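A favour, since you know our structure tokens better than I do. It will help me judge whether the discrete encoding reads sensibly. The space below this message is yours for that.
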Amino acid sequence: MRTICFYFELHQIRQLKRYRFFDIGTDHYYYDDYANESMTFELAEKSYVPALQALLEMIRESNGAFKVAFSVSGVGLEMLELYAPQVIELLHEINKTGCCEFLCEPYSHGLSSLASKEVFMEEVMRQNRKIKELFGKKPKVLRNSGLIYSDEIGEMASQMGFKGMLSEGAKHILAWKSPHFVYNCALASNLKLLLRDYKLSDDISLRFSNPEWSEYPLFAEKYIDWISQFPEDEQVFNIFMNLSAIGMAQPLSSNILDFMKALPACAAAKGISFSTPSEVIDNHKSVGPLEVPYPLSWMDEERDASSWLGNALQREAFDKLYSVAERIMLTDDKKLKQDFDYLQAAENLRFMTTKQNGIITERCIYESPYDAFTNYMNILGDFLARVRAQYPEMDNEELGSLQQMIDNQEVEIIQLEAEVEQLKAKLSAKAKKAAKKEEVAEKPVVEEKPKKAVKKVAKKEVIAEEKPKKVAKKAAKKA
């Protein structure tokens, strides 16, 4: 049976303020609070709230037939909790229906998967705990920032215990293959991959309200017909997009909400169901491994990492930021760790892109990629100075030996914890044996003594009865 898997991303970065060269060393606060509040409020009112209300209505009116998945970045959750708690409340309402799934992603929505395995895994597991605490469900499926994926990233996801991961159905990876099947990681066969159908996804998120599009206007019946016309063996249709596409990229005046609300009934008429990513993974076998030696993403026509690391400016900023990643992992300074999360956000590098691809790049306060680079590097200069103040420069050999010592201590702690558990198990076993011995010792005293006494009395009675018989026999013989 054909099924549609809808996934929506919710994310909002911490906007940086104008930061001059002369602020370095004197001002350690890097954020524009007014911009953060106003932009989050606008995003919630124009997009998130009406979109989530529509999705909740779709679930209820379809009696649970419609299902959906969400991924909310850790930084995005912080912003929503602070400036738009009504969005969190709506997510809770949808969660109560049992028809949604929450996915995991790096806490910062950054590019740590391309820089540091340790930072990436720490971020993902931290976000996993936050989702579990907030929504009561531990995510089993991972989506990386920008749907970035490679064989190595898939292997890391498998090591962290995830059973599936989302990525892009890019042509240069699939070639003749279809994104409408489930695949698996080439380096970890137990990790299944769900690939985005970028055409069907972009028809809604990018082209829906464009009057120059050949398929305009798009109705739910037509959209479901497209899906029903694919070959019968193509069963899984992954529609992945930003939730902000509903209301921001595609304004509410375009009737995007009416289109979405009509989908469940149109799909049911064609015998098409809706599934969460976990349901797709559980109900469909992998058709084979997908080899992705280099990172792919859902950004731009290239579907790679060039939107964030395509020029010298971006690579310089990226390298500088992650040059102190190991020290950030060592520190207990919460403010440093928080600033590291906010500075990692992929959009900070996206603002520096010089790509000319016809796609309008939102640069917020920046007039050009060079303006974005200058502002970011000024902030980074102050941030790096704060890190070095706590952890002075060391050569690689010294840093390596220090890290090795920490790793050895962690291993030793794990071994000691295992020994403690073994000792506890032994003590518990001994206590059980001692308790059994006491029970065995007590039972004969209570039950067996009376039995022995009865036997002795019976024996005496038998002897008493037999004595006269023996005397009579002897008398008879004498006579």
Q: What stands out?
A: Residues 3-308 form a domain with the 7-stranded beta/alpha barrel fold (CATH 3.20.110.20).
